[in-house]
């Protein structure tokens, strides 16, 4: 994975509209995606992730900046000359062609021999387990099957990069879970670089090698799912991925002092002045009131979820926290509403956020 | 048992209710058609009308002629050339209307809903004007002292007017102009339903612009293309006013030839037989249409 990256975007800007009404869909985005990687662009709708994908596919031309594919500048290359294929959100299957003819389309356009086309179609159909549907028309298939045809059609020409634009968003939950592992399997089997666009953080966390979090046209953080979840760099990333707690404090020698007067020994990474800290609910532990090294708090609400229980806590200064404690067999260590407790947070699980 | 009587009375009611329509159909469509069929198997009257004697002469004379002096039979070249010109001009009209209509329909279908309504309205405006007036308008444009030639002379592109009026070209221009909306509207309807994502999918899968047009767009909007072509071809084939006014009477099409038999020619049986031929050609065209368009529908 150290050789030439599969995809590279350099200072890519995409502006829609002109003058005062101009909007930057992409605001100076630079990204490097390694060969064979399952890379996810994650963000809320309108964050620019689909625009970036369309720039890689060639449907949009960046206003400035460059897109490189295996080190080759393809910024001005039309889509039909780029060795990348797209799985569209709406699948965009050709309604007048059978499943087999849909899959054969790209191969035929590349001028492959009849025998090679037939052979590849058969192989790809087997890959997505649709052998018996070769002669059906797209509208005779279920949503999940159409999805697999769209995948097969995009994989058939063996692209260098496969672009997936929220391909699972139209499926119901059960099918989506199935397709998630199916996609992961296909990516491993084919070794093709996948660039996957989604707004579903859980999808991103479970499937990706790396995630790029986007907001308002900017790339906020790139990292492995664990890095993104455990070490969010700013408030947006921390908030968008999973549930989290925020605490405000001031940098003092040896840590961060909260408004309650308690000091947490957090690694500061050069931050100073007033800072925001974040800690995941499952990292917070609850001890008996007055236990050494804990912050006094009061339980304001408890919600039982079966596998775990959420405790809403209020600190001395009025700030709120949520702690998630896993249920234990036969355990009844529940803290009731109104109880005074001690909140225990390991300094290592706290993260200081940038702006 | 009761259910059966119920159904029968319902069937009877259905017949009674559709009676006015059936009567109208009989009087307005089937009746005249039957008269034409009967006339085509009779002999022509002395000045006009028919003599009630069975004869297949009219049908014979569509394709053949008998020499007055020696009675030898030969192909009726004059008639055949009129048929050929009609078919040729109608096909050319259809082609021109398609080539002009496809980009027009595409343009309209890709506008915003508000702009689209305006464009469609503009397309339908000619329907409000009498066909004869529109044809005379075209005449004003293409005649020797008309708009086109005056403009070309004033621009210094030509020195003497180009004779377009009273040629096949004039008929072609006139028919293409008159029938263009009939091509644009079904094409628009088809393109309006077209999913433009499919064009991106085509490009993405290595198709060129032409490849996308030929392999994706045209096959999918084919029902609209076929409908538009039929709607232009059928009235073109039977056109009467346009070839009469712009062709100047010497370049006849089937419609004018039929009129001639009922008028000056005083041969009603031949006119009737020619009408039947025209009808058969049109029905054949419609048959092809239903075949081609139903093949598209996987459920039908």
TrEMBL record, chain A:
E.C. no: 7.6.2.11
Ranges annotated as spanning the membrane: none
Top-rank taxon, per record: Bacteria
Protein family according to the UniProt entry: Belongs to the ABC transporter superfamily. Spermidine/putrescine importer (TC 3.A.1.11.1) family.
Signal peptide region: none
Subunit architecture: The complex is composed of two ATP-binding proteins (PotA), two transmembrane proteins (PotB and PotC) and a solute-binding protein (PotD).
GO molecular function, one term: ABC-type polyamine transporter activity
Keyword Transmembrane: no
Annotated source species: Sulfitobacter sabulilitoris
Lineage of source species: Bacteria, Pseudomonadati, Pseudomonadota, Alphaproteobacteria, Rhodobacterales
InterPro entries referenced in this protein's UniProt entry, alphabetically: AAA+_ATPase, ABC_SmlMolc_Importer, ABC_transporter-like_ATP-bd, ABC_transporter-like_CS, Mo/tungstate-bd_C_term_dom, P-loop_NTPase, PotA-like, Transp-assoc_OB_typ2
Protein name: Spermidine/putrescine import ATP-binding protein PotA
ABC transporter domain: residues covered: 7-241
TrEMBL record, chain B:
Keywords: Cell membrane, Membrane, Transmembrane, Transmembrane helix, Transport
Transmembrane as UniProt keyword: yes
Regions crossing the membrane: 12-42, 89-110, 117-139, 170-191, 212-234, 270-289
Matches recorded under Pfam families: BPD_transp_1 (PF00528)
Location, primary (coarse class): membrane
Subcellular location: Cell membrane
Biological process terms in GO annotation: transmembrane transport
PANTHER family (UniProt xref): INNER MEMBRANE ABC TRANSPORTER PERMEASE PROTEIN YDCU-RELATED (PTHR42929:SF1), INNER MEMBRANE ABC TRANSPORTER PERMEASE PROTEIN YDCU-RELATED-RELATED (PTHR42929)
Similarity comment: family membership: Belongs to the binding-protein-dependent transport system permease family. CysTW subfamily.
Name the record gives this protein: ABC transporter permease
